[in-house]
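Lab notebook, bench 4. The sequencing result for the construct came back, and we need a structural model before the next group meeting so we can plan mutations. Quick request posted to the team channel:

Model the 3D structure of this chain.
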Amino acid sequence: MFLPTLIAQFGNGITSPSQAYTAGGTTQEGVLANFDLIISNLLGLFTIIGALIFVIYFLMASIQWITAGGDAGKLTEAREKIVQGIIGLVILVAAYGILGLIGTLVGIDILNPITQLQKIIPTTGP
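Done. Here's the predicted structure in C-alpha cell form:
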C-alpha cells in the first residue's frame, strides 16, 4: 500500500520519498495530508499482515489435516485451527465495518481522519 502511493506521487511531480511526506510544505494542510497518508498506509499494512498470517496459519492447519493419517485427535486439532483462522479473518474484515459503525454512532469519521482534523485545526492556504 505504501509503495503504490509513492509511485502515484512520483507521477504527480514528486521526485523523492522525503518530498512525498512534505509535499504540502510546512503548512497545516501539508501536515494533515501527511498524517492522513501515514494512517491509511498503516491500516493497509496491518490488513495485509493480518491476511498473510491467516494464509500461513490456514496452510499449516491444512497440512496438519492432510498428514493426520486418520488420527481423530490430530484431525480435530487441525479443524479447530482452520476454524480459528477463519474467525480471525472475519474479525479482521469486520473491523472496518465496526469502526465505521462506531464512527457513525458517535458522529466522527474514524476511517477518514483528515476530515476530522481539518474540523479541529482550521487550515489556511499559503
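The two ends are 30 Å apart (CA to CA).
Will bring this to the meeting.
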